[in-house]
Every structure is written in C-alpha cells, then in structure tokens.
Amino acid sequence: MSQSSNSATRAEVCAVACAEVFRDNGEILASAFGTIPSIGLRLARHTFSPDLMLTDGESSFVKGTWPVGSPADGVVEAWSPFRNVFDVVWSGKRHIIMIPVQIDRFGNVNISALGDHEKPSVQLVGVRGAPGNTVYHPTSYWAASHSPRTFVPKVDMVAGAGTDSAAKAGTGASRHHDLRKVVTNLAVLDFAPDSGAMRLVSVHPGVSIDDVREATGFELEVDGDVPETRLPTDEELALIRDVIDPRGLRNKEVPNE
Amino acid sequence: MTEAEVVGRLRSGMTIGIGGWASRRKPMSLVREILRSDLKDLTVVAYGGPEVGLLCAAGKVRKVVFGFVTLDSIPLDPHFRAARQSGSIEVAEYDEGMLQWGLQAAATRLPFLPTRGGLGTLVMDTNPSLRTIADPYGSGDELVAMPAIPLDAALIHMNRADAAGNAQFLGPDPYFDELFAMAAEQTFVSCEKIVPTEQLTAEHHPVTVAIRRLYVDGVVEAPNGAHFTSCVPDYGTDESFQREYAAAAKSPEAWTNFVDTYLSGDEASYQQAVAARETEEKSA
Predict the structure, then answer these.
(1) Do the beta carbons of residue B74 and residue B48 sit within 8 Å?
(2) CB pairs under 8 A between A and B
(3) Which one of A141, B93, B154, B196 is at 20 to 30 Å from A182 when CA atoms are compared?
(4) Nearest Cβ partner of A127 from B119, B123, B132?
(5) Rounded CA gap, B151 and B59, in Å?
(6) Residues of B (18-57) whose Cβ lies below 8 Å from A
(7) pLDDT at A5
(8) How far is A230 from chain B (nearest CA, A)?
(9) How far is CA B275 from its chain centroid?
(10) Cβ distance A144 to A253 under 8 Å?
(11) Which of A85, A86, A106 to probe the B interface (max B CBs under 10 A)?
(12) Cβ separation of A117 and B172 shorter than 8 Å?
C-alpha cells in the first residue's frame, strides 16, 4: 500500500487512528459510538482486521462495509439481542470506543451526571454499560473536541473505571481492566504502564505537543520524541471517501482546520 | 383484562418493572392508565425510555432504578432530566448488566449474584447499600454482590399473545421482558393482538414465544398500545410525536397543553388524538 501524498483531512486522520485501535485484536466484537470511530472500525475490518465482528446497531452481527448514517447492508452472520451483548461484554470478547463527557488523567470517565449525583446540575444519559465495559474487556475512548472541559483533573462521577480506581478496587476490578487508547481530534494517547497516567502516543499532522498540553486540564506524560499520527494510505482514503462516508459526515464531527 | 383492571391490581408504593428498552416496545397504554390513576410513590425499574419521563412528570415516582433513560433518537428524556435536576426523585443507578443481574437474582430466588461490574466506579458510592463478597474459591477477587431486584409487578408489551399469557415478540429483540416477568409477583402483558395459541407458532418459530404463561397474570389487548415507542414490525417509533413530547418539556404551559391534548381522556381518546394528529400531518 502506498502512503498518501497527503490530501487527508483531520477527520480522516482521526478515522484511521480509530481503525488502528482495533489492529491485531483478533476475533472480537468491535463496538463504537460516534461517526469517526464507526468509520474506523469498518475500515479496520475491511482492511487489516478482517476477523472483527460488528453489529448493525440493533440485534444482528453483519458482515459488509456500508456507509455511516445508513442502515446496515451486508450478510447477517449471527443474532445478537441486547441480552447477548451483555454476555459478550462479560466474556471479554469485545473492544469498545466510548465517548466520555469527562475523562481524567487515569482514564476515569463520566457519562452519568454533572455536579452532585443526588441533585445533578446536568443529568446525562446514565452510566449505561461503562462500569461493566471497563472491568470486563478492552475499552478505548474518542473525543471529537479535545479541551480542558473534557480532559479534567477530576470527573464528577466515575462511570467507567480508570487505572487508579481499578487498581484500588483490587483484582476483582483490575484482572481484566484494559484501557487501550484515547483518540482525539488532536492526538492519540494511551496509559503509561508504570503510572497508569495518560500518555501522549502521537500528535496529528499540524498539531504540536504544546497544543495538546494546552487542551488538557491535567499533566500529560510525554516520553521522548512523539511521532506524528500516521496518514491514511490512498486505499484507505478512497474507502473512507467513496464507500464508508460518501456523505462526508466525518467533517461535521471534526471540521477541517 | 383492560388497562383499568390491571392498574386496579397495583398499589401506591409498589416497585414496578417496565419491560422494553429505551423508546422500544414499552407498555405505554398501561403507563397512560397509571397516569390517570391515583397511584403514587412508585419505584420504577427499567431500561428507561419515555415511560420514565411521563411517570416523573406526573409526580407518580419516588425512585427510579436504572442504567439509562433515553429516547434513542433524542439522547435524553427531558422530563426525567428535569426531575433529576430538581432533586425530586431518588435513584439507584446501575450498570446495564448489573440491572440484568438484579432481575436475574430475583427471578431465580437468589439474594444476590456476583459480578465485577460496578467495581472501581461511583456506582458503589452512590448505592451505599451495595456490598462486595470475596471469591469463596480462592482467586482473591473481591466482587460486587448485586442484590436481587424483586418486583411487585411487571408490565410488558408484546406483539402477540394468547389469552392464557403466552406472549410473542416479532421484532428483532426480546429485550429483558422475560426477566421482568420472572422477577415479579404479578406480571401483566399488553399486546397488539390476542390470537389463538396455535396461531403463535403457525408462521413463526417457537423461540419467538419468549414469555411463558407460567409468569403471566393477565393479558390486555392494546392495539397501538406501545405508541409512541416502537413495536416492530407492527410499527416503528413515532418520531414526530416523540419530538412533540420532548418539546413539551420546555415550559409548564407547553406541558399542560400536551397533557390536555393527549392524556386527559381515556386510551380511546388518546388513540383518536394520535390519529387526528397523523391526518393533520399528512395533509400539511
């Protein structure tokens, strides 16, 4: 595959970074919230991770590569009602990209409520599957707008367990706890194995390390030289533009700089 | 049975489980009957959709036991949100799988079931009665002992049922309705159509008859009874009505207007108002 001569937009770089989250994951259920993560997992399955299983967003696993924002179009390969999705979660054969409203240095995330939980200033959707996801199977995060409002020193309500919280809760929580990556509109991050703290992995083309630091409301780990996030190949760009997102929904989630 | 007969079997202060999922296959005609009743102080257990918002807005709810409340295409139910932000209701917020586990425990007469879900999160702190338990087989893992969530009553809506209470889903997902039924002292099923038993499996695999009459105390025929949530394949979510419902949270006047238009009469008048609205929409 040839490297693109680089007409890739920021949204396309992000989509490929989300696809990379699923590289070498083997035969698992890949799930995602958000347009760009959804593009990423379809791209991953279509190219370098063909064993991934994907849902149609309802109750079936479907094989195929269809556009985001359109109904699934492909071969139904299994039935998977919500009951089964929970079973898969607890079996560990899943990797999800979730969208935190708040995330802290150790990857604790909040999607439940802002302010005091008894009387929140803003009620959000609820903890949903975050508590289970984070202690049962690999979990990654996507933030379309990397800012100190999202990347906070302390989240109001821990809905998904971070590295420190899981360690503190003991092996019941930490045995299968596996936070993988945080992909944002500026960078790719992970969690340093020693400290469990968020660490810069790569910056997107046109973004500096200082840009990421300024957009982050806590201290980031930065070890040595930080590379640029890889660019999409020509084949990947063609897939994104012509097959997976022909309507350009990705540009609404991450506008081009 | 009728909706009124079902609600006649419920009492204030009861814990009521409501089947379906978000804005899908909710027993809305039964919920509307509760809105018309003098029931209050209810504890509602649900994978929550607009039934939670409606019951909160009507002041029927003391506590909600939930993992989420969403309308699918509208991420947050504004009436539930208002109740939370005013501090007028209590909550027990669980992971989606913990909620399933609590129902499973109640359904199988266990005091609790172990899970990892919830460990390391504020689910443990916001539910201070939650306890952990050490693996008795020596792994060293300390696990959540998810308590059973026994229900005084469960309300569910299905596509078809026979008069005895065997009930069938024809859409893609049975959700957790059978668990709600098994976890409850009494279960009432509303359905689009009551059919002879032999018709349930004449065209569909028996696996679609997910609710067994063993767990059902009464059946209500309620065509369009899940409106404005979906009851696929009979009908989808009425998105335009749902938007009107959500928008009515904007002011007390808008909400009064919504209640006057749709909720002040009986179920037949609700369905007439919905039909009239549809006609108006088509001619617009």
Answers:
(1) no
(2) 146
(3) B93
(4) B123
(5) 20
(6) 21, 47-48
(7) 53
(8) 34
(9) 24
(10) yes
(11) A86
(12) no
Nearest C-alpha neighbor of A45 from the set A22, A71, A67, A66 = A22
What CA–CA distance (Å, rounded) separates A252 from A111?
Answer: 22
Backbone torsion region of residue B177, taken as left when φ is above 0, otherwise alpha when ψ lies between -120 and 50, otherwise beta: alpha
pLDDT < 50 regions, chain B: none
Residue A43 has pLDDT above 50, yes or no: yes
Helices B50-57 and B28-36 pack at an angle, to 10 degrees, of 0
Per this entry, what is the length of chain A?
257
Angstrom distance (rounded) from CA A135 to CA A138 = 8
**Structure tokens of A199?**
């660490």
Q: Does B180 touch chain A (CB under 8 A)?
A: no
The pTM score is: 0.96
The alpha-carbon gap from B262 to the nearest alpha carbon of chain A, in Å, equals 27
Give the C-alpha separation, B53 to B39, whole Å. Answer: 16
Instruction: Output the six-digit token pair for B117.
Output: 């879900």
3-state class of A143 per DSSP? strand
Amino acid letter for position B263: L
Check residue A45 and give its pLDDT.
98
- Chain B hits for A72, CB-CB cut-off 8 Å, are none
| Concatenated DSSP letters of B89-107 | SEEEE--HHHHHHHHHHHH
How many CB atoms are closer than 10 A to CB B189? 30
Nearest residue in chain B measured CA to CA from A114: B85
